[in-house]
Amino acid sequence: MAKTIIISGLILLMSLCSLAQEEAGDLLVIPGETNVMTLGKTRFEDRLNELWQQALSSVNTGNLPDAELDIKQMLLEARHYDIDTLGDFSWAAIIRYLEEMQEGNRLEAQFFHKAAIDLGQGLPEPAMLSCAESAREHSWGPMIKEFFDGFAIIMTRDMFFLPVLGNFLYFALTSLYILAFFLAILLFFKYIARVMHDVQEFFQMRVQAFLKTILAMAFFVLPLILGFDLRWQVVFLFVILFGYAAAKERIIIIAFLVIGILTPPALYLLRQEYRLRTSAIYEAASAIKHGELVYNYIGNIETINNILGEDTDLMYMIANLYQKSGDTANAIAYYQKTVDADPRNKEAYLNLGNLYFWENQFESSIDKYKKAIQADSAYIPAYFNLYSALNNNYQYDEAQQIMAEGQAINARAFNRIFNHPPQNDVVGAFFTTGDARKKYHKINREGKLRGKEIRGHALRDSLLSNLVHPLVIMCVLGLIGAVMLDRFRVKKGGYAGVCTKCGRTFCHLCKRSSESQTYCSQCIHIYIKKDGVPLEVKVKKINEVKRYLRFNFYIQKLLNIIFPGSVSILKESPVKGILLLFTIFLLLAFIFLRPLFPILHIQVLTAEFLRKGAMGIIAILWLASNVRNLLEKGGV
Description:
The chain is built from 28 helices and 2 strands. Helices cover about 75% and strands about 0% of the residues.
């Protein structure tokens, strides 16, 4: 038993030394290129800033009703451009809320709390702010609801979901990495006596007796001696222990190796999706889709357009952004550039007509809508907008004719718009996230942005390089090696057994196969046959059994106190123990590693809540795992 402790301690020490030398996060961190978004100034933005400053002045003078009117006016003017979310102002309101709460100004804090919610429709921060407020007031029901409201927004919005998924995978894979290491050590501790017996038998046939123990100990840490990292050591132990493991333990070992094989290519695909969704083109399209302020994106799209050389898709997108920012002159200029370069661009004609329509230049709008129809004679939005423009220009007979033509082409589509007319009287068309995805992949295939350090387009790896990643290679070799070694050992006589009474090991060379494989020869004579064993031998054996059982009992109890679930793994319930340990390691990652929600601008709203929740769950799991363990008496 002393050898068991020495060898386990040696492997643990060398493994931890190897772990300390590894580069952290080389595989699990999702990289993203960065570039600074430029800010485009528009009259619309200036107007919003003016109203916000008026609201702040009203709050500072104690005139909260006027401040509320300013916020309502901001929302009203934003909705004129189909903008529902004023994120910058919502985050500014959250900061002011925190400041007012710190100073004890409850009324002002409540104003900024409401302003943050009104201005931040579709953002998770206001919901998390409400969650923090409910937690402060010990309103646990609303707190849970508001947290999950914010979480639901995160899970359904492009700009939030992937960073959170990336961090969750970082936590999960880090937890699995640590769990694999711990499982290998725990299984080694469980089967070390049998493994040592077989390894010593192997070396005993080839070297002198005094070297066999040293060689056996060195064999178990061979990857570390050869300079390989901790991952190789874990896989090596899995290969060695696979044949000794029970059926459920074998399934778990295979599962860990398969996860190792799939991890690099899966993370590559995730990185690709992350690069796409954080590219300027996709982010701008997503902002348009969700009704957010978009003027921050104009500079980046213009930069990409200049590099590509007046790309019609990007010119159309820039026109969309200017239109959504209230800069009609620039929007018209870019829509005109688009149709000059691509006369078949029906969406550009449609939006160009809309801009003239809102300026009451109905003759010009009618001309653009007709050109949209010339580009696509089945384009129903153009028919509806032309109908609206003709009506506003008092050309009622022509309007009815256009309406009849549109209904003849697609009555259902035309009537759907007619029965639910848009807020601004005409239908618009904008660059969608689907369009952005296609454009992104086309740009990357052409390679025109390669080496330009434009976010999302600086590709640094490939799927092939991830399929031959060292982790994939070592896990494939481990899986093949475990199965082949097991088959070889079975053909050559199998594995050493262990006496369940005293812990002594035996193999086919030590004991006939016709004898019981549950007990050693001495225990068979003492406990089963009871055939005249001398008293002194019997007493010695009973004391040996007591020491063995007592040692195992207290070691397992200590392990379970430090690592809840260890007893389940050691006592043939490995799945339960693995799930429990994984959950605890995952919660510890939430507590000690980077924030789960990296996209939240106000981290304090969630960090404390998550840490306290994680610590509470860990405490509950620890108690559930150890109450019975601590009360249990045994070992003799």
